[in-house]
Amino acid sequence: MAGRFAQVLRLQTADHSSSDEEQHERNPVSWLARALRVPGRERRILVQSAKATLAATAAWLLATLVLRLPQPFLAPYAAVFLVEATVYRSLRGWLQQVGSVASGVLLAAVAGQLIPWQAVALATVVFLGLLAGSWRRFGDSGVWVGVTGMLVISYGTAREPVLLGDRLLETALGAAIGVAVNTLIFPPLYGERLAAAAGRLGKALADLLESLSDVIRRDEPPEDLDGLLSHEQDTRSQVLAAEEAVGLTREGRMLNLRRARPSAGTNHERPLRTLIGLWPAMSQLLAAVRTTAGRREHPFEYPWPDARESLADLMHHLAGAVQSVAMAGEPVELDECRALLEKLEKRLVTADEDGVPARLGLGTMTLPARLLLEQLEKR
């Protein structure tokens, strides 16, 4: 269960930190100072950890001092786990957790009545509970069916209806407190992730386009394209991180009492979606360059130098446009891109002296460039 809590914290704080941020994490004093000074990842960790502590303590005190429940260990457990990454996840988790724990308690009650041997009853409850917990409606809380049943059997309360009711009550109480704390006290928002993700992805895509421009300008195809492949994989990772940022930000606004307030990064959401949408065409362009430039046994398929120069210029101007998109509010100049693309497409139709193989190579790389431009025009 401790692993589940660690997973919750990772979901709350997942981000691709820079080297400066990593340096802060190595120094606890600097990390704490940054959390208090700057809104962002560190502060979110601090706030969510404090909220989980408050929820667990409140659940324990209420269960012991007010309701006087004996050994209400499930109350603080449930409270901690329900301080989720978003308010939506907390509410969904409350339903899943209460349902899974109730199922585990009922399963233990039935086993306790029908099976007189504790060891056999425990084995039966764990096995059936884990099977039942795999139902997708339980989500991540499904493991609680088997675990709760195991704990109830182990504590010898499976045949005592009053204690079984206590287990259900303390779980519902702890989960409700966790949801309330996460909903009412600084409910988490992730708008600032959009600005950071847009900056990182814009730079990665622009750098990749510049690398392609350099490759295309060469008179001879490069000996080794592994560096380009590594660059492609790094950029793909940034695309995945950006998709996660968009999803978590959208989910963070659902049922959130702070959603109506202006949040950092709001104006970066549409530009970031545009950048993410560039990746399919970018992937096609990379495949085209690798196929055309890497086939040294057929060098005549490589476009003629002047055609490659225009194509490389197009890559360079597309890189500039991508960087402008990442900087929300900046004008995006596409006129030069359109002119170069029109020039290349005209050459594909009219330049018979290039020969079919060379035009084939040029067309293979021009089509994805057209798709990139169209995606940028729809921003």
Automatic annotation (TrEMBL):
This is Integral membrane protein. It is found in: Cell membrane. It is a multi-pass membrane protein. GO terms for cellular component: plasma membrane. The chain crosses the membrane at residues 45-67, 103-132, 138-156, 168-190. Pfam families: ArAE_1 (PF06081). It comes from Amycolatopsis mediterranei (strain S699) (Nocardia mediterranei). The keyword Transmembrane helix applies. Keywords: Cell membrane, Membrane, Transmembrane, Transmembrane helix.
